[in-house]
Design a protein that fits this description.
The protein is an alpha/beta fold. It has eight helices and 19 strands. The chain folds into two domains: about 200 residues, FAD/NAD(P)-binding domain (3-Layer(bba) Sandwich); about 110 residues, FAD/NAD(P)-binding domain. Bound molecules: flavin-adenine dinucleotide.
Length: about 350
């Protein structure tokens, strides 16, 4: 039976959960390292709302779905397999021999899918991205990714010089408010989300011609395909061409709960704690992309994924040597040889 027909029984070298920019890069690195790799993906990359990607070197203007399709084809060419589905839980599984005290048998992680199936892997890369919880303002969700934007580096050029609004959602919004002035001198900042503005901050914004509107936004008005205005609770209307705002970013990591991984408090919220290679506090689990780095754009997610894939492969390389050395020592013992003597015998017969 082939791997794709019998995922339940196969022990994979590596499983990657999430097939976006980070996951596909990790999968490519693992596939090219001759690791038997499975990608499990529910097919909802974060940027699916946008027609084109920008600030992605070599892919400027490429539709997000096209990048994913190319990434899948490339990984497939290196033997990576794909499975559509959603992971609901990951558990730390000691192999049966380990549970009975046997030495050297590899421990694995068990990955359970929504449909009830499960696979096991020696290494796991989590690249499941995040969910953008949007401010509940009428008109906003309809225009997310077209007239309502979150990242000036991704979409600022396309709306440069136009009438822009910043809808602040937290005190962190001041950063976005200042940033957007770089792309347009026709900028209104809806400041209710910043809390009270002190005089210094107000002067800073006004000094470069930024208009500050304290009245909370009631609605984002559009004409079907485009954003045309912002309406405040007090009934004031501001004509705009595009709105920038920040979502609350919720990582897709609840399915890892049983592993009790270490977490870190960040300015963006509570995220998994990883080292520079993406390794979590579990020695078999790496994480890359938006699931651990909410500010990562596509190129950053790709880089982190490639690094995590390589790091996972290297951990397996080390383990392969450790297991082989254990087997070697056991075999020598069986033959009544001292390890040094066994080594000489092996060297002489090779
Ligand atoms: C509207 C919008 C436009 C953007 N435009 C740009 C741009 O122009 N340029 C740019 O550089 N960046 C852009 N970004 C940012 C970009 O989306 C992210 O940097 C990128 O998607 C992060 O990649 P990732 O692989 O970490 O996550 P994702 O691309 O979100 O991929 C995660 C994958 O994991 C899957 N998944 C989640 N949970 C599970 C589970 N439990 N089981 C199985 N699979 C699961 C998801 O379905 C998804 O396919 C934009 C973001 C938004 C919101």
């Amino acid at each position: 039976m082939t791997n794709s027909q019998d995922h339940t029984r196969t022990l994979w070298d590596a499983v990657v959960i999430g097939g976006g920019a980070a996951g596909l890069s990790a999968a490519q690195a693992l596939g090219r390292s001759l690791r038997r790799t499975l990608v499990i993906d529910s097919g909802q990359p974060r940027n699916r709302f946008a027609a084109h990607m920008h600030n992605v070197l070599g892919h400027d203007g490429t539709p997000p779905a096209e990048l994913v399709a190319r990434g899948r084809a490339e990984a497939t060419a290196y033997g990576v397999e794909f499975r559509e589905g959603s992971v609901r839980a990951v558990r730390d599984e000691a192999a049966a021999e380990d549970a009975s005290g046997g030495a050297g048998s590899p421990r694995t992680v068990r990955i359970e899918l929504d449909g009830g199936e499960a696979v096991e892997a020696r290494a796991l890369v989590v690249a499941t991205g995040l969910r953008d919880a949007l401010p509940p303002i009428p008109g906003l969700a309809e225009h997310w990714g077209s007239g309502v934007l979150h990242c000036p580096y991704c979409h600022g050029w396309e709306v440069r010089g136009q009438r822009l609004a910043v809808l602040t959602t937290s005190p962190l919004g001041l950063h976005q408010a200042k940033l957007l002035r770089q792309w347009s001198d026709d900028l209104v900042v809806f400041s209710a989300g910043l809390g009270g503005l002190d005089a210094d901050t107000e002067r800073t914004l006004v000094s470069r011609g930024v208009v500050i509107e304290p009245d909370p936004v009631a609605e984002i008005v559009g004409d079907g395909s485009r954003v045309t205005a912002m309406r405040t609770e007090g009934g004031r209307e501001f004509a705009v061409d595009a709105v920038f705002t920040a979502s609350r970013m919720v990582p897709h990591d609840a399915f890892l709960g049983a592993l009790e991984l270490r977490r870190a408090d960040t300015p963006f919220g509570d995220f998994l704690d990883v080292d520079g290679t993406g390794r979590t506090s579990h020695p078999r689990v790496w994480a890359a992309g938006n699931v651990v780095a909410p500010a990562a754009t596509v190129p950053a997610a790709m880089g982190a994924g490639a690094l995590a894939g390589a790091a996972a492969n290297f951990a397996l390389v080390e383990e392969d040597f450790a297991l082989a050395a254990d087997d070697f020592a056991l075999a020598a013992q069986d033959r009544g040889l001292e390890p040094e003597r066994a080594q000489r015998v092996a060297g002489a017969s090779s």
